[in-house]
Design brief:
Chain lengths: ~325, ~550, ~300
C-alpha cells in the first residue's frame, strides 16, 4: 500500500510538471494576443503602445524563459497576479472553485442517483418496454446541446411559468441565505444532470448486463437465489467497476464541461473562468486553473483505482503497486 | 438608513421572480449587459462595459453629447481661441504646440469628501507618462508635454502638437491622488496594487451621481447614489449592472423580470432586437440608434486582382447593400458610402455612390479583362479564375450571414468568393495586423465623432515588418491626395480649410474604394415603458453619462 | 472491431453473428434507418438538382418561409432551402461523428489493451499520459491549429485551401483527445480479464501476447467499447455544435446539424422550427447508433452462444 502511494505520488508530480509546460506552450502558441486585439479595434492606440504593454506583461520574452520565470516563482509560493483582473490568482480562483464544486457535485450526485436504478432496471429486463423507454428518455437528453437545453429551461421555468430565476447565483446585489441561493441552482443542475444522465445510465445498463452473464451469477441463479439477491449481492458489485471509471473520468472533465451551462446561467464557475483566461492569455490564471483540473483528474483516477480494489477481489493493492 | 433600505430591497428581491414586484420597486433599476469589465481602473482597462459603469460613477473633463457636440462635464467651460484659453506655444526644440487652459468645476468633490483639485490632474499625468505603469492610451500622455497647475482648480496643458481639437480631452480620466499615490510609488506594481481593482467599493474613487457599492466579479456591479455628487440628484436608490453573456439568455432575463433594461451599448444583436420589438413592442420601448460602428470590407490592394479600380467598383456594384439593410436589419442600419457617419458634422453627402447593379458590375469586370465565363466564374485571358477570399471573425452570426449574402451576390456577377473565417484573436491579432489576408476582410471600426482617419488611410500607416507592424492601413492604400488631406485637416483649423479637407478625404475614399463600405451598425436599447430620460448617443461615450436624467414613472 | 479483423472469424461464427443481430429488431431497424439517412446525405447533390433548387443560393426576399411545395421544410434566415441544408449538414455531422469516434475507439482500445495486459511501467506511463490528455484543454488546441499554416506543414494545397479544412481539423483534434474514456474502460476490463483461467491457459500454451489480446481479451472487453463509441458519436455531433457556438466549428456556408442548431439559437423566438429539424436529426441519429450498438454488443458477445 505504501509503495503504491509513493509511486502514484511521484507519477502525479511528473504529470503535473509536464502538463504545466504543455499548457504554457499551448497558450503561448496561440497567435495574436489581447493587446493586439485591443490595438486592432481602437484606431487611437499605436503599435508602440502595444509593444510597451506587451513588454510590461512580459509577453515579449521567449516562451521557455517565461515558463522558467513562472515555475521558479510558483515553486516559491508566488502564483502571481491575474493579468485580466489585476488581482492575485487565488483571490479569483478559489471562490470560483467553490461554486464549481457545489454545482457539479450536486449535478453529478443527482445524475448518478437517477442513473443507477434506471440502468439496472433496464438491464434486468433487456429489450423490454421499460428498457426501451429508459433508453429513449436518455437519448433525448444527450441529443440537445447544453446551450439549447438551458435556453428552453429558462423560457419554460423563468419566463412562462415564472417560478425559478433565469440565472445568476443569488439574489441581485448579494445577501440571502443558502436556501435563497438554492433556487438559483435548480436550472443549471437540471441542465447538467440531463446531459450526463444518458452516459451514466447506458454504462450502468451495459456493465450490469455484462455482470449478469458472468458464470458465478449464473451459478447463483442455478442455486435458486432470487433475482433480487443475485442483482444486489453479486452482479451490482461488478457492474460498478466500469461506472467508477466513467465517473472518475468526468471528475476532471467537469471543469471545462460546465462552460456552456455556466455561460447560459451566468453562474460563476471554473469552466467560464478557464475559457476566458485562456483566450485572454492570462497565463497565471489559466495555468493554475488547468493544473487544478489535472490534479483533480489524477485524484479521481487514484480514487477509482482504490475503488476497484475494494469492489473487485481479484484486484489487490499488490497488483496495483506492481504498476 | 441606507443600509436598512438595502435589506428591504434584498427582501423584495428574494421574491423577484414575480415581475410585478420588480416593477413596483421603481427606485431600483437593473441594467443587463453582455460583458463584464476586465478591471475598474479607468486608464488601465478599456472596455465598453467599464465605460458604461463609469458613466454613472465618473465624469470626464470633456465629452461628446448625444448631439455629437463637444461639451464640458468636469471642466467649468470649454477653452476657445477667442477667449484666449487656447494659445499657440512652442516646445523647447521649437516644435509648434498649443497651450490650453482648463478649470475644474468648483463643486467637484470625490466621494469621500476630498475636493477634486489640480493635484489629481498632475498625479494622473505623471503616472500616465511612466511607461511601466501600463496606462493604455500613452499617445495622449506623450502629446501632453507639460501640465502647469495655476492653483487648486485651474491648470494649463502644453501640447507638443498643434491640432484643431486640442480642447477635447475626453480620454484624460483623472484618478484621486490622495488614494492612489501610495500604490503608484512603484510604477511597475501599479497595475496590481491600484485601489480601483483591489478595493473598487472605496467611495473616494468616484465623483459621479453614483458610486460602486458592491462587486460580484463576472456577475454584477451594484451602485448607490453618491452623497457628494454636485449635480442634479439621480432618482434611483440603487442601480445594478448585471452581466449575462449569452444574448438569448439576456433577453430571457428581461422577459422574466430579472433585469429591467438592456443597454444598447453592450446588449443584444440587432436582428434579435427587431424580433423582440415585434413580439413585445407594446410592453417595452425599443430604441434603435445608428452609431459610429462602421462595418466595412478592407481590400488587400497588393492582390493583383484587387489593385484594379474597376474590379473594386464592380464588387461594390454587385453587392446588394440596400437589400441587406432592408431585409436583414429592416432599414435600421443605413448603407454607408464612406467611413464618415451622416450624423457627423464633417460628413459630405455628395460623393460617388455605387448602387446595386449586377449588369454594371459585369461591364466593369469585362473592361478589366475578366470576360471568359466558365462554370459561372469569370476568367481572364491567361485563364485565371476570378477567385477571391473573404475573412471575418468566426462565430459572429450576423457577420457570417452577411458574408454568405455577399458570396451569393458576387456569384451572380461571376466572382468566386471563398469564405475563410478565423477566431477573433487570430484574425485581429495576426491576419489583419500583419496583412496576411489575401482578398477581403470584413470588420468594424468604432470611433468618436470627427475622428481623423490617419491610422487607417495614411500611407505611412501601412503595417510592415520594418515598422514592426504599426498602423492600421491594412489595405495598403497609398494616395498622395489622401495623405495631404489628412495632414492638413489636423492642423488647418479654419472653417473653410476644414470643410475642404474633410471633403477631399471623403471624395478620395469613394472614388478610389480602398475599402468597400457596407453600413453603420445600430444599437438596440430595450427599455421598460416606465423608464424615461435615456438618450442613446451612438458613439463611444455612453448614455449613462446623463444618468441623473433617467426617471421611472 | 477493426482489431477483430486481425484474425478471421470462421464462417459458422459469422452466420451466428448475423442471426443474433437480426433477432434484435430495434438494432436492425436502426441500422436500416442510418443507411437511409447516410444515403440521403450522400445523394444530396442529386436530390438538389432533381428539386431544381440551389442549396447555397441566398434569397433575402424569401426568408423564414414555411414549408411549401418548393421548399419542403421551408427556408432559413438567408432564404435557403432547409431540407437540402439538412441533407448537406448530415454529410458533415455523420462524417465528423463516425470518423472521430472510430479513430478515438481504435487509439483508446490499443492503449487500454497494452496498459491492462502488460501492466507495470508501461501501464503507469500510458495511464499517466491518459490523465494528462484528459486534462488537456481542447479549446486552445483548436485555436492553435486554426492558426497553423497548413501549406507550410505539407498538407496538400487542395485540402489546405478548401472550405472544409475546419472539418478535418476538428476530426483530428477530437480523435487525438477523445480516446481517453475508451482507454480507461478497456484497461480496467483487461485488468479483470487478465487473471481469468482461459487467459492463463492460453499463456501456458505459449500463445503470443498479441494473439492473447486479440483473441481472448478483446472479445471480453468489447461491450464497454461499443457503448462508449456509440455514445460518443452522438456527443461528437453535439460537440461540433458547441464548437460552432464558440466560433471554432464548421465554417459557413457549409452546413452541419450542429451549426444549424447554433444559428437557430438567437432566432429562437423568430423561427423555432429552424432548431427543430436539425435537433430531430441529431436525436434520431443518436438513438439509432445506440440501438445499433446494443445489437452489435449482443451479437458479438462470445458467451451469448453458450446460453
Amino acid at each position: 500500500m505504501l509503495t503504491f502511494l509513493a509511486r502514484r505520488l511521484l507519477g502525479t508530480v511528473i504529470v503535473l510538471a509536464v502538463m504545466s509546460f504543455v499548457i504554457f506552450l499551448l497558450i503561448g502558441l496561440m497567435p495574436g494576443d489581447p493587446i493586439d486585439i485591443m490595438i486592432a479595434s481602437n484606431p487611437d492606440l499605436t503599435t508602440a503602445d502595444g509593444e510597451r504593454l506587451k513588454r510590461l506583461h512580459g509577453l515579449d520574452l521567449p516562451i521557455t524563459e517565461r515558463y522558467w520565470n513562472w515555475l521558479t516563482a510558483a515553486l516559491g509560493g508566488d502564483l502571481g497576479y491575474s493579468r485580466t483582473f489585476n488581482r492575485p490568482v487565488l483571490d479569483i480562483l478559489l471562490p470560483r472553485l467553490g461554486n464549481t464544486i457545489i454545482l457539479l457535485g450536486i449535478a453529478s450526485l443527482t445524475a448518478i442517483a437517477i442513473a443507477l436504478p434506471l440502468g439496472f432496471a433496464a438491464a434486468v429486463n433487456p429489450h423490454s418496454l421499460t428498457d426501451n423507454g429508459i433508453n429513449m428518455f436518455c437519448f433525448a437528453g444527450i441529443s440537445v446541446p447544453a446551450f439549447w437545453l438551458a435556453i428552453l429551461l429558462i423560457l419554460l421555468f423563468a419566463v412562462t411559468l415564472g417560478v425559478l430565476p433565469a440565472g445568476g447565483m443569488g439574489p441581485v446585489g448579494g445577501g440571502g441565505g443558502f436556501f435563497d441561493r438554492l433556487e438559483f441552482l435548480v436550472l443549471p443542475v437540471l441542465t447538467l444532470t440531463i446531459a450526463s444522465l444518458a452516459g451514466y445510465t447506458r454504462f450502468a445498463r451495459a456493465s450490469m448486463m455484462e455482470a449478469m452473464r458472468q458464470d458465478y451469477v449464473r451459478t447463483a441463479y442455478a442455486k435458486g437465489l432470487s433475482v433480487r439477491n443475485v442483482v444486489v449481492g453479486h452482479a451490482m458489485r461488478n457492474a460498478l467497476l466500469p461506472l467508477v471509471t466513467v465517473v472518475a473520468l468526468d471528475f476532471g472533465a467537469l471543469f471545462s464541461g460546465a462552460l456552456i451551462t455556466e455561460t447560459m446561467f451566468g453562474y460563476l464557475g471554473m469552466g467560464k473562468l478557464m475559457f476566458d483566461s485562456i483566450l485572454a492569455n492570462d497565463f497565471n490564471l489559466a495555468l493554475v486553473g488547468l493544473l487544478f483540473a489535472t490534479l483533480l483528474v489524477l485524484v479521481g483516477n487514484f480514487l477509482a483505482d482504490i475503488a476497484y480494489a475494494a469492489i473487485d477481489p481479484r484486484i489487490s493493492f499488490k497488483s496495483l503497486a506492481d504498476q | 438608513m441606507l443600509k436598512w433600505g438595502k435589506y428591504v430591497a434584498v427582501a423584495t428581491l428574494v421574491v423577484m421572480f414575480i415581475p410585478a414586484t420588480a416593477k413596483a420597486a421603481k427606485d431600483e433599476l437593473i441594467i443587463g449587459i453582455s460583458q463584464f469589465p476586465t478591471g475598474f481602473h479607468p486608464n488601465l482597462s478599456s472596455h465598453v462595459a467599464l465605460s458604461l459603469i463609469h458613466g454613472m460613477t465618473r465624469r470626464s473633463f470633456t465629452v461628446y453629447d448625444a448631439d455629437w457636440k463637444l461639451i464640458c462635464l468636469l471642466c467649468a467651460e470649454l477653452p476657445t481661441r477667442s477667449d484666449g484659453t487656447i494659445r499657440d506655444w512652442q516646445t523647447e526644440d521649437g516644435t509648434p504646440g498649443l497651450e490650453v487652459d482648463y478649470a475644474i468645476r468648483d463643486d467637484a468633490v470625490w466621494g469621500d469628501g476630498t475636493p477634486v483639485t489640480t493635484k489629481d490632474v498632475l498625479f494622473t499625468w505623471q503616472v500616465g507618462r511612466v511607461p511601466e505603469a501600463g496606462i493604455n492610451n500613452q499617445e495622449l500622455y506623450r502629446r501632453m508635454e507639460n501640465i502647469v497647475a495655476l492653483d487648486d482648480k485651474r491648470f494649463t496643458i502644453q501640447w507638443n502638437k498643434r491640432t484643431c481639437d486640442a480642447e477635447a480631452i475626453n480620454d484624460f480620466e483623472i484618478v484621486p491622488a490622495h488614494l492612489e499615490a501610495t500604490a503608484a510609488e512603484d510604477p511597475a506594481q501599479y497595475r496590481s496594487r491600484n485601489i480601483y481593482d483591489s478595493e473598487p467599493t472605496n467611495a473616494g474613487l468616484y465623483f459621479g451621481p453614483y458610486r460602486i457599492s458592491r462587486v460580484e466579479p463576472g456577475a454584477s456591479v451594484t451602485l448607490e447614489p453618491n452623497p457628494t455628487w454636485w449635480g442634479q440628484k439621480p432618482q434611483f436608490k440603487r442601480i445594478v449592472v448585471r452581466t449575462i453573456e449569452n444574448t438569448a439568455a439576456l433577453e430571457a432575463n428581461l422577459l422574466s423580470g430579472e433585469i429591467d433594461y438592456i443597454a444598447g451599448e453592450d446588449g443584444i444583436s440587432l436582428d434579435q432586437a427587431l424580433t423582440f420589438q415585434k413580439r413585445h413592442g407594446d410592453e417595452y420601448n425599443v430604441v434603435f440608434k445608428p452609431g459610429l460602428f462602421y462595418e466595412h470590407i478592407d481590400l488587400n490592394l497588393d492582390n493583383s486582382i484587387l489593385s484594379d479600380l474597376r474590379v473594386r467598383q464592380a464588387l461594390l456594384h454587385a453587392i446588394d447593400r440596400e437589400a441587406m439593410s432592408e431585409r436583414l436589419f429592416e432599414g435600421k442600419q443605413p448603407v454607408a458610402h464612406t467611413s464618415i457617419h451622416p450624423l457627423d458634422s464633417v460628413h459630405v453627402g455628395e460623393v460617388r455612390k455605387y448602387a446595386f447593379d449586377t449588369k454594371r458590375a459585369g461591364e466593369l469586370l469585362d473592361e478589366a479583362g475578366w470576360t471568359d465565363i466558365r462554370g459561372g466564374v469569370r476568367h481572364n485571358a491567361a485563364g485565371e479564375p476570378l477567385r477571391l477570399e473573404i475573412m471575418t471573425t468566426s462565430g459572429n452570426r450576423v457577420r457570417e450571414l452577411v458574408e454568405q449574402v455577399i458570396q451569393s451576390n458576387l456569384r451572380d456577377a461571376g466572382v468566386d468568393l471563398r469564405i475563410r473565417n478565423e477566431p477573433a484573436r487570430v484574425y485581429f491579432g495576426r491576419t489583419l495586423r500583419q496583412r496576411e489576408y489575401t482578398g477581403l476582410a470584413m470588420f468594424a471600426w468604432f470611433s468618436s465623432p470627427q475622428n481623423v482617419p490617419r491610422t487607417t488611410l495614411h500611407s505611412t500607416m501601412i503595417p510592415t515588418a520594418e515598422n514592426s507592424w504599426s498602423g492600421q492601413n491594412y489595405t495598403g492604400y497609398v494616395s498622395p491626395a489622401m495623405d495631404e488631406a489628412i495632414d492638413k485637416v489636423e492642423v488647418e483649423c479654419g472653417a473653410a480649410e476644414q470643410a475642404k479637407w474633410w471633403r477631399t478625404i471623403q471624395t478620395e475614399y469613394a472614388e478610389n474604394l480602398p475599402v468597400l463600405p457596407l453600413y453603420f451598425r445600430a444599437n438596440a436599447f430595450i427599455m421598460p415603458k416606465w423608464l424615461s430620460g435615456v438618450t442613446p448617443t451612438g458613439h463611444q461615450y455612453p448614455s449613462t453619462l446623463w444618468i441623473e436624467n433617467w426617471t421611472a414613472q | 472491431m477493426t482489431s477483430l479483423a486481425d484474425h478471421p472469424i470462421d464462417v459458422a461464427e459469422r452466420q451466428l453473428f448475423w442471426r443474433r443481430f437480426r433477432e434484435h429488431r430495434l438494432a436492425l431497424f436502426s441500422g436500416v434507418l442510418l443507411v437511409i439517412i447516410a444515403m440521403l446525405a450522400l445523394l444530396a447533390p442529386l436530390i438538389e438538382s432533381a428539386m431544381g433548387i440551389d442549396a447555397t443560393r441566398v434569397d433575402l426576399f424569401n426568408q423564414y418561409a414555411l414549408p411549401n411545395a418548393t421548399h419542403w421544410l421551408g427556408t432559413d434566415e438567408a432564404g435557403r432551402d432547409v431540407f437540402l441544408r439538412l441533407l448537406y449538414g448530415g454529410r458533415i455531422s455523420l462524417l465528423v461523428g463516425l470518423v472521430a469516434a472510430f479513430a478515438a475507439a481504435i487509439i483508446g482500445t490499443t492503449i487500454g489493451l497494452l496498459a491492462g495486459y502488460y501492466g507495470g511501467r508501461l501501464d503507469a506511463m500510458l495511464m499517466r499520459t491518459t490523465d494528462g490528455v484528459i486534462a488537456l484543454p481542447i479549446l486552445p488546441l483548436l485555436i492553435v491549429l486554426a492558426a497553423v499554416d497548413l501549406n507550410k506543414v505539407g498538407v496538400p494545397t487542395a485540402i489546405a485551401e478548401s472550405e472544409i479544412v475546419s472539418l478535418y481539423r476538428m476530426m483530428f483534434i477530437i480523435a487525438i483527445v477523445g480516446w481517453t474514456t475508451v482507454a480507461r474502460l478497456v484497461r480496467s476490463a483487461t485488468l479483470s480479464v487478465r487473471s481469468r483461467e482461459f487467459v492463463r491457459a492460453a499463456e501456458a500454451m505459449g500463445a503470443r501476447p498479441w494473439r492473447i489480446m486479440a483473441r481472448h481479451i478483446l472479445p471480453n472487453v468489447v461491450s464497454p467499447i461499443i457503448v462508449a463509441t456509440t455514445l460518443s458519436i452522438g456527443s461528437i455531433i453535439l460537440l461540433e455544435s458547441v464548437l460552432s457556438f464558440l466560433g471554432l466549428g464548421i465554417q459557413p456556408p457549409t452546413p452541419s446539424w450542429g451549426n444549424m442548431l447554433t444559428n437557430a439559437q438567437e432566432l429562437i423566438t423568430r423561427a423555432p422550427q429552424l432548431a427543430v429539424y436539425p435537433g430531430l436529426m441529431i436525436f434520431v441519429t443518436v438513438i439509432a447508433f445506440n440501438f445499433l450498438g446494443d445489437g452489435l454488443q449482443d451479437a458479438l458477445d462470445p458467451r451469448a452462444s453458450r446460453r
